[in-house]
From TrEMBL:
It comes from the Eukaryota. InterPro entries: SEO_C, SEO_N, SEOA. This is Protein SIEVE ELEMENT OCCLUSION B-like. Residues 15-305 form the Sieve element occlusion N-terminal domain. PANTHER family: PROTEIN SIEVE ELEMENT OCCLUSION B, PROTEIN SIEVE ELEMENT OCCLUSION B-LIKE. Pfam families: SEO_C, SEO_N. GO terms for biological process: phloem development.
Length: 715
């Protein structure tokens, strides 16, 4: 009844409790010899696949052209040597083949024949028993179908086929087709179980032992798997033997049909169980290898090297591909040698890296290529796409990868699969990658000179070469709180205003009414004060749809100058955020640094309505929230009398400070959980108290994709 059910529980109870399985275990007395059965299994698989797969072909073609020759075995890339294995095992295989045929003709029961075979193979390991029995069956089964395929074109084959009654059998192929279909299904399951048993034997002992539950559980069931598979082989051999000896008139009894069907179901369940355990074993091995590779990477980055090749080869696992990267300029695959002893910038991102990021990076990269003799052009970029190893790679993902790769002028890996799981772990744990693009800098010896130079790249472009932390510190020392810091490299128009010494209002926000009132009031104040004023709208870091509406209003009403290219707006805010992240990365987020206080104010104002920065030429006069700035302008009559005495700059700034002192705007910073390094705490740039920390879930539908789970500091 357990065989009829064919369930896993039945198999387990058979394996553990039945007298029959004790008998099977009693036949097992290996003498310690190790037989490499992989070549023999490969040969047997080829025989059975070619014979089994050609059954339907023979039935269809026999009436048209009986015995149409099958194509010869394809040439293999490398010839596997079978001679050593066959020299040692051919006698036993022949003996089993004869034993199976003899028992079938003698009417022996399947269990008895199976036990006889296992006793014959008592000194061999379980995997060898199974493969050798399968090889014995392949001798007989392969001969049957070989003759069926060639007897019409070969006289020797024709004579042998007549002896085996093959022509008569094939003439009545119609009624026999269901029987061969059943044999095909059973043989397929036999092969599946055999492969699984052999794979367990091939598991590397250096990474897995019998102590691992999955392996110990599987090995406990291997004897049952071998028994039932050998018994299925005996059943298949019986069918072929009786068919060739008794002819097409031999009818398949109800009991025999039931046995074939039951064995097929039985082996299906056995195979599913073994594959599940095999998958667990592979996962265990994979985990151990990943831990080993991760540890190797950690040690490798702590060592001193003469060049960067060991590091690059560890990060980009070429496997059998000598050219694992693609040259972005030629779109041809090349070797890692092209990066030897060069400054290499690893552009690490997922497949959702934005068009804006790529556009600005490409612009900076191409500008550096124009003057190849300049020091700041002596670096190469390579894209390292990080894909979650737990996600199944799809055709859509492949197309997305190829689309991104095709747009990049720098080097890229040929496929994300060359970035191993341990490397992904290293990138996430050691370089704090959280899906937002980072730029890790390796010097010509492979040392990490910056864990993330993306902020330097956004702020200073190629001028930040060689992108080291020391260079970053040096560049900050050269900077000051001036308008060029905010707009440099973005818009030459504003730089021209700076050169002309004009008053400039740089402003942003998403409130159309505030923008309209602010620009009109500012223009009226400029006219009344007789100062040359220019205004430039720079949008907002988020809410792109609202920004587009503001831009439409500014255009129609001609309220001020603005940036038509959305990438310029994105770059402005990305540079501002990069200034903050640069300081965080350096561990120098000085709450008393005037420049950083002003940058933090701007970033905070962006989260809470409008804002405006007023400068005269390069010199920034005031940086304020939209409410305080607009109030200051509206109250022009209260401070206009101070202009002749203090000058416009000081008069405006003093009154703005009075307004600001009455109502402190709420300050807020948002750090997406993809940002990598997030500060433990921050002080408010307005009142200098420590801000409270919140967790916020955010979905900006107008962004094209959601920005989820930022950590928010607020006061």
């Amino acid at each position: 009844m357990q065989l009829i059910k064919g369930d896993r529980g039945g198999m387990l109870s058979m394996s553990d409790d039945s007298v029959m399985m004790k008998q099977v275990q009693a036949t097992h007395a290996p003498d310690g010899r190790e037989v490499d059965v992989a070549p023999l299994l490969h040969l047997v698989e080829d025989i059975l696949n070619r014979a089994t797969l050609q059954v339907s072909f023979v039935f269809i073609s026999v009436r048209k052209k009986a015995g149409q020759a099958h194509a010869e075995m394809e040439e293999k890339n490398h010839q596997i040597s079978y001679s050593i294995v066959l020299d040692a095992l051919s006698y036993v295989i022949d003996r089993i083949s004869c034993e199976i045929a003899y028992k079938a003709l003698g009417g022996a029961d399947a269990h008895g024949t199976t036990m006889t075979i296992l006793e014959t193979l008592t000194s061999f390991q379980w995997d060898a028993k199974l493969v050798m029995t399968l090889a014995a069956f392949a001798l007989h089964y392969g001969e049957f179908w070989l003759l069926a395929q060639i007897y019409s074109s070969n006289q020797l084959a024709k004579s042998m086929a007549i002896l085996k009654q093959l022509p008569t059998i094939l003439e009545h192929s119609g009624p026999l087709k269901p029987r061969f279909d059943a044999l095909n299904k059973l043989i397929k399951n036999i092969l599946e179980v055999t492969r699984s048993v052999v794979k367990f034997k091939e598991l590397p002992p250096s990474y897995i032992s019998q102590d691992v539950p999955a392996l110990s559980a599987a090995m406990a069931h291997v004897p049952a798997a071998v028994y039932w598979t050998v018994r299925a082989i005996v059943a298949c051999a019986n069918q072929i033997t009786l068919l060739t000896t008794m002819g097409h008139e031999y009818a398949l009894s109800t009991t025999e049909a039931w046995e074939l069907s039951s064995l097929e179901h039985k082996l299906t369940n056995i195979c599913d169980h073994l594959k599940q355990q095999l998958g667990s074993c592979y996962q265990h091995i994979d985990d151990k290898k990943n831990v080993e590779t991760f540890r190797m990477l950690v040690e490798l980055f702590e060592m001193t090297h003469i060049d960067n090749m060991k590091i690059l080869k560890a990060l980009i696992h070429a496997r059998d591909d000598p050219m694992p990267i693609v040259d972005g300029s030629t779109k041809r695959k090349v070797t890692l040698e092209v990066l030897r002893r060069k400054n290499v910038l690893l552009l690490i991102s997922d497949l959702n890296i934005s068009h804006d990021e790529l556009s600005i990076l490409e612009q900076i990269y191409n500008e550096s290529r124009i003057h190849t003799t300049r020091l700041d052009s002596q670096y190469e970029v390579i894209w390292i796409p990080v894909v979650d190893p737990s996600i199944v790679w799809t055709e859509a993902m492949h197309k997305q990868f190829e689309t991104l790769q095709s747009t990049m002028p720098w080097y890229t890996v040929s496929h994300p699969s060359v970035i191993e799981k341990a490397v992904v772990r290293y990138i996430r744990e050691k370089w704090h990658f959280r899906n937002k693009a980072i730029l890790v800098v390796l010097d010509p010896q492979g040392r990490v000179v910056s864990p993330n130079a993306i902020h330097m790249m956004w702020i200073w472009g190629s001028n930040a070469f060689p992108f080291t932390s020391l260079r970053e510190e040096s560049l900050w020392r050269e900077e000051a709180w001036r308008l060029e810091l905010l707009v440099n490299g973005i818009d030459p128009m504003i730089l021209n205003w700076i050169k002309d010494g004009k008053y400039i209002f740089l402003y942003g926000g998403d409130d159309v009414e505030w923008v309209r009132k602010f620009t009109n009031t500012a223009r009226a104040v400029a006219v009344a004060s007789r100062i040359p004023l220019e205004m430039a709208y720079v949008g907002k870091s988020t809410k792109k749809e609202l920004v587009r509406r503001v831009l439409a209003t500014i255009t129609v009403e001609k309220l001020s100058y603005f940036w038509q290219d959305p990438t310029m707006i994105w770059f402005f805010w990305t540079r501002l955020e990069s200034m903050l992240f640069s300081k965080i990365q350096q561990g120098k987020l000085d709450d008393h640094d005037p420049m950083m206080l002003e940058i933090k104010k701007l970033l905070s104002y962006d989260k809470e309505g409008g804002w405006a920065v007023l400068s005269k030429g390069s010199n920034i006069i005031s940086n304020g929230h939209g409410n305080t700035v607009l109030t200051t302008l509206v109250e022009y009559d209260l401070w206009k009398e101070e202009i002749p005495v203090k000058g416009f700059d000081l008069a405006y700034d003093d009154h703005h400070k009075k307004v600001h002192g009455v109502t402190y705007p709420c300050c807020r910073f948002e750090f997406p959980n993809t940002a990598g390094r997030i500060p433990e705490g921050m002080k408010c740039p307005e009142c200098h108290r420590y801000m409270e920390k919140y967790t916020t879930f955010l979905c900006c539908h107008d962004e094209g994709h959601p920005t989820a789970s930022p950590f928010r500091g607020e006061l």
